[in-house]
């Protein structure tokens, strides 16, 4: 249910914040086109905006956009396009495929004749080829080159290989490339951040291949890795993976890979490198020259095309550059309103005790999310067994108890007044400092009642703070308050008599 509701919220966000069609949104989120279209119509009819809906709970979204289930059992639909691609990729007959399908989905499977008829009808619609029109600023395609670049690592004194990440904007063919350590998730995500900085903006869609660093399951309807989903959310971009064994789904980046291999990597191999930074310094120079080359068909260069009609179509970069995050899902909040992340405890609002949250861990921070909303953010600590608590997350009683420490009372006293600070410091300068807790806490209570300035002035009237007790101070403040009230009453009475006489 939680995964389904996350898809619904993402669909509503894309409907209101992008120019993607219902079919593109449905493909990106593994929803049906009919569902996305229904969401769009309902939101328009009710006049709902994304700003109104972004904080909605899953229950409210479900109640507003979905009908209650009537209990009818409907046989699950099959994708004839996916069956067609699967049979070609695995060189399999429909009969063999159907035997596995019917065994796996029994008794809710469709009949062989039904699937066969649908597959025949689908195949009649397939064209021999298609001229694809690329909308400027809408899509970026990414891939790795098959070639690598060697370098001598001075620290380990070993020969290592760098892989080359390539990104291309299909409308202008403007190309980016960078050398990274590996095809692992962190390196893959940082390469994306560098690519968007290079372009100076962000498109609506990213088309990766089916590498494990991006996708859990393959294809446009496949499940996206949590880390890659976090990256795409940061940039407000939708991942739509290419189909397996279908390189034409990302034809532009396939061409860009060959272009980079021919005009950049072939020249890099004539150099000797000792670090990734050295490779990327030289790669940047050669890539700039390659992007400035006129296109082979006589059109302007990739850079000229990008500057002319694609740069302005990209969305602005977010305020902060993406910082690689590790996602820790489904963590239960303990009875002390803390969660454990990498052996350290971090607080969350006490109302979430017993519920499940997700943690996003970056190099500098730990962010906690509940129902897709950030509820806590802490500076990351590497102290194993330690605890980080935000006082705002505590109940009132716990917060008051936490303030009754020598450190907290000293901090308060320094801001309350100079004489108050000297009095509190005197209370803790004894053989048993904990005995100073009660008088210091009582002094804070008196300051809350009479005001910091009044208490500080009253303490200043004593020649030696060593002989002052909070009992004496309380009595003095009480007398001052009564005398002040008496004077005020007398003045009020005199003023009233004068008015009467007049």
Features:
502 residues; 5 domains; four-stranded antiparallel sheet; 19 helices; 47% helix
Give structural notes.
The longest helix is centred in the C-terminal third of the chain and has 32 residues, at 470-501. The radius of gyration is 34 Å and the shape is elongated. With 502 residues, the protein is an alpha/beta fold. Helix 1 runs antiparallel to helix 2, helix 15 (406-416) runs antiparallel to helix 16 (418-428) and helix 15 (406-416) packs parallel to helix 17. Helix content is 47%, strand content 15%. It folds into five domains: 2-65; 80-123, no CATH class; 139-313, 2-Layer Sandwich (Nucleotidyltransferase, domain 5), CATH 3.30.420; 326-397, no CATH class; 403-487, no CATH class. The chain has helices at residues 2-17, 22-29, 33-46, 50-53, 58-65, 80-90, 94-105, 112-123, 185-199, 226-235, 251-268, 276-291, 302-310, 396-402, 406-416, 418-428, 437-450, 452-460, 470-501, and strands at 139-153, 158-169, 174-180, 205-207, 238-239, 326-332, 338-341, 344-347, 356-361, 365-370, 373-379, 387-388. The strands form three sheets. A five-stranded mixed beta sheet has the order 3-2-1-4-5, sandwiched between helices. A four-stranded antiparallel beta sheet has the order 6-9-10-11, covered by helices on one side. The chain has a three-stranded mixed beta sheet with strand order 7-8-12, with no helix packed on it.
